[in-house]
Amino acid sequence: MLNSNILKLKLTAINGQDYAGYQSLLGTYDFGLFKLIIQQIPKDPYAPPHTGIYRIQVQRNDNRIISLKIESKVQKIACADFLARHFFDASQKISKGIRGTGFSGIITINQPGQAILERNSVVIRNDIIEIRCFLGLPADGRKIISEIAENMLFNELSDIVSKSLLNENIDQKALKKHIDVAEDAEYLRNELNSLGLIAFIAENSILPRESGTSDKPMSDKSVIPFSAPDSLMKEIELPYAGKIKGMGVPKGITLITGGGYHGKSTLLNAMEVGIYDHIPGDGRELCVSNAQTVKIRAYSGRYVVKTDISPFIKNLPFQKDTISFCTENASGSTSQAANIIEAIEVGAEVLLMDEDTCATNFMIRDSKMQQLVNKEDEPITTFIDKVKQLYLEKNISTVLVLGGVGDYFDVSDQVIQMINYRPLDMTSQAHKIADMFPAKRKVEDEAYPFQSRERIPISESIDPLNEYGKFAIYAKEVHRLNFGKQVIDLTDLEQLIELSQTKALGFAIEYAKKYVDKKTPLREVVHRVIKDIDENGIDVISDKISGHFAWFRKFELAFTFNRLRGFDVIQKDMDAI
Ligand SMILES: Nc1ncnc2c1ncn2[C@@H]1O[C@H](COP(=O)(O)OP(=O)(O)OP(=O)(O)O)[C@@H](O)[C@H]1O
Ligand SMILES: [Mg+2]
Predict the structure, then answer these.
(1) Does residue 564 contact residue 305 with C-beta atoms inside 8 Å?
(2) Dist. CA 3–CA 22, nearest whole Å
(3) What is the pLDDT along the chain (577 residues), one digit of tens a residue?
(4) Is 302 in the pocket of ligand 1 (CB under 6 A)?
(5) CB of 206 closer than 6 A to ligand 1?
(6) Which of 177, 208, 382, 539 is buried deepest, with most CB atoms within 10 A?
(7) What three-state secondary structure class fits 241?
(8) How many Cβ atoms sit within 10 Å of the Cβ of residue 169?
(9) Ligand 1: which residue has its CA nearest to atom 23?
(10) DSSP class of residue 573?
(11) pTM higher than 0.85 for the full model?
């Protein structure tokens, strides 16, 4: 480790030189309060932040540093998440921003969203806390400006570290709240199963968001806090928040209905992201769902490889195989069918669907249509005829948002009507209506089974090299992942919420190849990757230290594989393995 004065001397020596001169700064420096490891410096000032890594390490036994009492994994994740947010806020306030070409002058850390996630921008070990940030070393064109660099490293960075890690600068109450909120949400989520529930929405939760592009809570005065109908009200005692009340969504089939603009999708969205713990002030801190909840939608154009969609679709034109269905360009209904089957394949326990994003001809075929178009001429068995079977045979619950199809009353265990953003339990009325007006439609193909088929990935079909033979895995948008020669479109993975998850998914695909051995099914491959991350931290997915990864589930990993064009599998009946 070098004295930080050496860094100053090095900086003076390269002033005015070409940007490449910055490479001489690589090394470890002692700043007293912290150690700075300059690990990777981009080759030019336009290179995006993830191409540079600066690691700041402080000793946890240094009594100037925030003392963290960590007794569980949830606490550790919440502490690191809290510190990442503090570092981000401090860097926003203290760094003077862009000063020169490209990213010159910025100091930043991967920006966290509304969820408390395991992220590797802050790593807490027994002895140290490590922050992984980015500094845009400044240049005029490609000419090094040492004076600004010195100011960034010796004044701004030091101030940011003090502000975000010194005991005296940390709001202990806020830290405790961050941890308690995460622990309560985890506790609540773990309780769901034994209570016969798949989701819980606490009283007074704020579900609507600021806008279609902001995940922050709606702060409007007109916001209506959530209030549960009496019949679905549950009281639960949490470790920190004490006794709380809210709406328990029971297992089975739940229909969320009601007029347009009355808050149906907003309620479903809260269940979608109920798989994550939310930060204090988010409004959804105590809205949780079963951890194996998967949002399903249609998304035409997606890639599908050897997926058995025959429970929903068979007898396609030109005898196209649907037991081992492949396409470069799925239609609305086939994409939705594939999404469901692939979710079941990796262990989904709850499916969420919203009419806004479903294929209508996948959801229902009404009686008039049944009379006009013979079943022999309609490849689709609609979801209404399969939803009960999914629950009875596979124990998979479904929550459906449907404002326009009363035939679903017949198959729903609960019917919740949203009126002016408030849920009412309309189950008995809906069932009465269903009895009074028996459905004229015929149930179709209900006996056709959901076969368990394994899909065994083939290693050669997972290639991270681009057209120049270079390793290329990167993401600039949450729903777009560049992997080798391919761009993976993740638009329909609506439960992906942060860019850092997408980046991690890219590396996880490459990492997963260690388990791809012509024997292990995809279901097991993704399970092993998640187990490795659980046991060793998210750093495990890459050889290189990074500060840009955040946690994701096995589902998102499997679904990313499934959308990688060229990805290939061997399909087998479960019994054949
Ligand atoms: N509790 C609430 N308080 C205030 N505004 C809300 C609340 N819940 C939802 N909203 C807002 O109301 C609007 C409509 O909500 P949402 O999209 O959930 O309706 P919807 O019932 O799904 O409508 P549609 O049937 O047209 O799809 C959105 O702009 C949403 O942010
Ligand atoms: Mg809607």
Answers:
(1) no
(2) 18
(3) 999 999 999 999 999 999 999 999 999 999 999 999 999 999 999 998 788 999 999 999 999 999 999 999 999 999 999 999 999 999 999 999 999 999 999 999 999 999 999 999 999 999 999 999 999 999 999 999 999 999 999 999 999 999 999 999 999 999 999 999 999 999 999 999 999 999 999 999 999 999 999 999 999 889 999 999 999 999 999 999 999 999 999 999 999 999 999 999 999 999 999 999 999 999 999 999 999 999 999 999 999 999 999 999 998 888 889 999 999 999 999 999 999 999 999 999 999 999 999 999 999 999 999 999 999 999 999 999 999 999 999 999 999 999 999 999 999 999 999 999 999 999 999 999 999 999 889 999 888 999 889 999 999 999 999 999 999 999 999 999 999 999 999 999 999 999 999 999 999 999 999 999 999 999 999 999 999 999 999 999 999 999 999 999 999 999 999 999 999 999 998 654 4
(4) no
(5) no
(6) 382
(7) coil
(8) 12
(9) 261
(10) E
(11) yes
Ligand 2: centre distance to CA 494 (Å): 14
Ligand with minimal distance to 262 CA? 1
Cα of 184 to ligand 2 centre, how many Å? 29
Question: How many Cα atoms sit within 13 Å of 185 on the Cβ side?
Answer: 30
Q: How many helices (H) does the chain have, and how many strands (E)?
A: 14, 30
Closest C-alpha to ligand 1, atom 25? 260
The torsion angles phi and psi of 520, rounded to 5 degrees, stand at -85, 125
CA-based nearest residue to 231, from 217, 248, 214: 248
Distance CA 143, CA 392 (A): 68
DSSP letter string, 394-431: H--EEEEE-SS-GGGGGG-SEEEEEETTEEEE-HHHHH
Distance 477 CA to ligand 2 centre (A): 24
Residues 6+ apart with CB under 8 A from 494: 272, 295, 297
From 342, 291, 284, select the one nearest 113 (Cα to Cα): 284
Does 265 contact ligand 1 (Cβ within 6 A)? yes
Q: How far is the CA of 417 from the centre of ligand 1 (A)?
A: 13
Residue length of the chain: 577
